[in-house]
Description:
The complex is a heterotrimer. Chain B is an alpha/beta fold. Helices cover 31% and strands 25% of the residues of chain B. Chain B folds into 3 domains: 234 residues, P-loop containing nucleotide triphosphate hydrolases (Rossmann fold), CATH 3.40.50.300; 189 residues, Rossmann fold; 76 residues, no CATH class. Chain B has a 6-stranded mixed beta sheet, with helices on both faces. In chain B, helix 14 runs parallel beside helix 15. Chain C has a domain of 234 residues.
Amino acid sequence: MENSTKxxxxxxxxxxxxxxxxxxxxxxxxxxxxxxxxxLARTTVPGSETLFVMTPGGSSVISPNFKFNTLLVINIFAxxxxxxxxxxxxxxxxxxxxxxxxxxxxxxxxxxLAWGARNASINVGGMLRIMLMRSIPIVLGALSGxxxxxxxxVNIAIEGMMITGALVGAVVGSLYGxxxxxxxxxxxxxxxxxxxxxxxxxxxxxxxxxGTIINIFTIxxxxxxxxxILQEREWQYLNESGIFMPTGIPLLSxxxxxxxxxxxxxxxVYAMYILVFVLTIALFFTKWGLHLRAVGEHPKAxxxxxxxxxxxxxxxxxxxxxxxxxxxxYFSLGSAGYFNQDMTAGRGFIGLAAMIFGNWxxxxxxxxxxxxxxxxxxxxxxxxxxxxxxxDIMLMVPYILTIVVLAGVVGRSRGPAAxxxxxxxxxx
Amino acid sequence: xxxxxxxxxxxxRFPGVLANDHxxxxxxxxxILALLGENGAGKTTLMNILYGLYTQDxxxxxxxxxxxxxxNPTDAINAGIGMVHQHFMLIPVFDxxxxxxxxxxxxxxxxxxxxxxxxxxxxxxxxKYNLNIDPNAIIEDLPIGLQQRVEIIKxxxxxxxxxxxxxxxAVLTPQxxxxxxxxxxxxIDQGKSIIFITHKLREVMECADRIMVIRGGKVVGExxxxxADPEKLAAMMVGRPVELKVEKELATPDGTVxxxxxxxxxxxxxxxxxxxISFEVRAGEILGIAGVQGNGQTELVRCLTGxxxxxxxxxxVLGTETTNCAPRTITELGVAHIPEDRQKDGLVLPSPVQDxxxxxxxxxxxxxxxxxxxxxxxxxxxxxxxxxFDIRTPSSIVPVSGLSGGNQxxxxxxxxxxxxxxxxxxxxxxxxxxxxxxxxxxxxxxxxRDDGCAILLVSTELDEVMQLSDRIAVMYRGxxxxxxDADIVTKEELGLLMAGIDTEIDTEKRKPxxxxxxxx
Amino acid sequence: xxxxxxxxxxxxxxxFYEEISKSSFTIIILAIxxxxxxxxxxxxxxxxxxxxAFGESFSTGIIExxxxxxxxxxxxxxxxxxxxKEMVDSLFSGDSALIRKAFKPFLESLVVTTPYLITxxxxxxxxxxxxxxxxxxxxxxxxxxxxxxxxxxxxGLPPIIHVPLALLIGVLAGALxxxxxxxxxxxxxxxxxxxxxxxxxxSFSLSQYLITGPFQDPNESFKTRFIEESAxxxxxxxxxxxxxxxxxxxxxxxxxxxxxxxKTTWGFEFRNVGLxxxxxxxxxxxxxxxxxxxxxxxxxxxxxSGAVEMLGVNFRAVQSLTTGYGWDAIAIALLAKNxxxxxxxxxxxxxxxxxxxxxxxxxxxxxxxxxxxxxxxxLFFIAAPAIIRTIYRLKxxxxxxxxxxxxVSGEKL
Lengths: 428, 520, 413
């Protein structure tokens, strides 16, 4: 027998897919570093100063601003990104890769903002506020996906449930007030999800097909209702719900920096915080959560211990549907004040990507949601900064980001093992 | 004495199959009852009914003389019945505590998990029965032998009095099987009763207090080990007199066909699965790889067939290097492969039989001219193979999913044997098959060997390896720790090697011992 | 062995009933029928006049509902096929303008069917290889825009060169859009459902940008130039008939796809990788390559669909929202069980409905979105045939098979 110690000293190659992902990520980090260095730093006149205004417009709490030397900050971040890139390419951050991606992304963003606002000022506080608002539907959508998929049922119809929630919220909200609208929207989402559940759990239809059917139906149906009824002048009062107004949380909204950004919003943001917290506890610290996760990983094992797989899956799907309906009501009741087609613009799908990026955990979904939300906030602000990138191109960023994340995400196989497969009791 | 458990007239039908036919069974407290039968005889179905996974069509279940209704596993668990399944019902990403308490969790404050309390109890059970399990270990990190112990702890945690064990020895070395029997006796001493399902005669003779033989869904005989005759039992299991050994002549090996040098294979978690092994297989001989599942055999085969990359080392077939070549290149050199998991890797179940029969040759003449398929030739080929290999199927165009396990395996064998092959790699070729199919496959393997083919046989059934092989290599933790002459080595020695214990095999003055073991 | 009950004793109707129950064709017809009924109910439930009629009396309500449903679906029919009487009369009259007017609905339906057919084949091809291409919409967009670009950029080319060139560029654009998710799936395992959907949104933004920017017509905003005459697809008849050679291309695409899938080695690989990638790999098929090729071809064909629409119907790109062809194509493929020749039929179903719905909207005020609703219902019933069986009390085919006892070792007793 040859010495296996010789082998131990050599560098082991991992499976191809893992390594390719690692290298792609490394290249991305390096590209970011190069961008910061060559594009941003090179075009900055030394001595420029940037002012980050940290108080969102209209806030009564004043937070101190940041004024700093632009080039210095940009250079620092370029070097840090370079370091991360080199490390990732050759060694890899393993399961922290997502975290590092987020950090590098933050560095890029700050550099970009600093550069864009050189010798000028930019309201970062305001941007962060917008980030939070834009992330709501994505995070809520992701939470919906997590509930359902952790129990083993893939739900690509979050988009369709959202749009249903948006419509129901708008109409009921116009008639009976905002809170009624939100509740009705939530229930509507739950109702639609029952259909998804019946198709995929009872009739064992492929979950993607089932989701597609629901999407086709809901998108068509909501469009139909708008065209046939809501656009008629006599019925237009049904589509004027108005929106929830922001309210500050008593003590927390006074904290400098964090207060005005995170704690002075409409109820949807607070619901988001509460849901992330509650779902984390429920999924990972309760008996119910253990059962749910068991069903998603190995339904047969759960079945042999007396756990009712079908009931848990139905419950998970319906809860997910309720969440998706609630998420949809944000568009009409929390943002626009009325309903129109295409309000959701794919956020249901971005929510699924956020779920994957966040590794099927509520906290991860929150972080991923912030990421996408920030990209949207950035897109809005470009015009103000005078940066000559067409807004259409900027709008692509969240979607490109999703693809990048999916390509580079470490451990895609970490999703619930039995997700996507209908449970067949007789298969022993 | 009244039985602690009694089954009366249990009958269960599936579409087209009568799985259990009015079965009566009695289990007494403190005994080990062995249910003996070949694959497909109906024993697992019977136990699944007892455990509530199926419901019987007719018949009653009585515990301590009282009739009980078992509709689902919860009823069974409440009645004190626990089952260790053949395919473990463990969730790989959870830890031991979560797996063990699933379904019967300790909670505090209404709904919140109390893992600490459960973990303590698990430790107690582990010590009491000498099971040595760490409650915080993650299941997928544990070796299979330990995973099985977690299954045992699970049913003890749920306070089972009647334990059902379904083919528990499938994944253990002979020594580990002895350990398992010791654990079972400890359980009996503590007042438990055990039903032990197996198709291995030898085990039954060693550990059972009573034996019941099941064939074709019926009880065909009962015996006590002291009075039982293995040959008679085997005949009862199969329904006809059984040749307990494979007839084969001494091999006359020729030139080297497969040469493996210093092969090292690492999996994606940086674990070394195959650790610097070298061996060769010559034309006209069968080299058997013995070893407990999980010691690198699967990775070795995947590497040899081109599905997994080798980090170091060299593989060559008839002088041509094939390390890290594409599967098709390797196949075209005359290498055939019977995969371990026939339904996942060997067959495209929804595709017709005739397509499966040309799955690796469809692009060659005469099945295709250029890129155009030739349907008549494909059909003719299928008809011929169905006849030659006695494949029971309604036609050649039905999906192969409709065939029984044995016939599915015959499709794979027919496919691989229907082209000129120099090397055959057979992984677990008879797993899950009935005796008739097993005999058939063994015969064809020997025939191929005598035709001059080199055969690498990988199997966890030690008896099969010993019967068929001319030489045997033992794999343990990715290394080969011995290559011995099959006629000379004893089962005990192989068992020790499979468990990683260095054994000197003195071949000097040894007479060949044709082991009188049972093929099944 | 048990003897099967002597079938001669069963009477004719019982056998007929059993056969009908078992046939999946029956399921499809009933699914469509039930879908139409449900669609009709929704249409009535959202029309004020019906409520008014019910307000008068229940029977008036029912009569009005039935009349309304009849009017709706007959407009749908007339919009799709035309008025049979008109068609026959015009043929007898010999007036070519009259003939054209009478046959316009039918031929127009074929025009509308064309993109459904091509895109449907694209998606079906992907499904057969196990690739869920949700990105038909985006691939179509890119094919359309780039074919248009080729259409107005190259001047002075004869049609015989210009048309294939423009089509080719559209195909390549679609192929690229399909290649990216395909490559990502093969090399990194990212799920193509999400990546293709993301590519859709990227293509929407991109085409918006192009239409309002570099490709914009100097004289009209938010629209591109018209393509050159030389890039127009050949039309068979004069105005107002728009039937163009694209329909023939579509049929050809379906036939070629069928041939490749079922008669060639490539198709053999596609199908088996779709059914079981593991076993296919073991048998030597390069499953990664098949995945990439399948996504690329799927995208390419979808791109062709967009190109054909551009060169045959639109002639310029306009800032607009989605067409819905991509999503409908998924339904079309599923209904056809992914068989390219059957796609011809299901695409015609959708195309005729879409065309008919325009007339229906004019006549009855029912928005064309009702078609999406109808399609969803039909798909719902096809996906879960058990529901149809329960509603119409059909027998489950599994129950009508004779009980044959097979011994557990697989041999018939």
